[in-house]
Design a protein that fits this description.
The chain has 6 helices and 9 strands; from the N terminus they run H-H-E-E-E-H-E-E-H-E-E-E-E-H-H. It has one domain (about 5-150). It is of the alpha+beta class. The strands form 3 sheets. It has a 5-stranded mixed sheet. It has a two-stranded antiparallel ribbon with strand order 6-9. A two-stranded antiparallel ribbon has the order 7-8. The relative contact order is 0.20.
Amino acid sequence: MSDVVTVNKEHMLLWVKALESGQYQQGNGRLAELTRTDSSTWQVRYCCLGVACAVAIANGVPLSVQRYGHGGEGFFTYNGQGGMLPQSVRAWLGLDGGVPLVAGPTTYRSPGDADDPSMEVFYEDVDAVTANDVFEWDFTTIGTRLRDFYELGGE
């Protein structure tokens, strides 16, 4: 939890509140992906780190956004990053490492292996990508864990 001292709590709270707002559809595997839901409707789904990018842009962090793909599918990159936080967003959040942590030591067993203790995997630390893409925690849970891990409070 050494990042607790260095994070920008104001910016982290903006990100947490966005995760909890219900404004963003959750996806995984990419910062943001674009899918066609019908002949005239498009939907953007974000991983939790993609929401951080969107919040950073809304708060003046200059990021280059590029769309890739065609037809009904595609994805976005931010400063050339499709799956990881760009350096400028990490700096805005006050994070030293590449991926923000959301929990300390955790034992995880996928829902399909719930009855098999031999399938438990121990994680020393749980980062945001693992929480979003592997554990499939919803944005509210990720937000709560960020609040707790970085001691952001319940504001």
